[in-house]
Amino acid sequence: LPYWPPPRSPDLYRPAASILLALRHMAGDGNPIVFRVVSIVLSAAASVGVLMLATRLLSTRVALGVALIFAAHPLHVEAVALAVAQNELVVAFLAAAVTARYVQRRRAGGLTGLDWALVVGGFAVASLFKEHGLILPGFLVIAEVVLIEDESWRRRLGKLWGGYAALAGVAIAVVVTRTAVLGGRLEASVVAE
Question: How does pLDDT run across 18-38, given as a tens digit for each residue?
Answer without folding.
Answer: 888 888 889 888 888 888 888
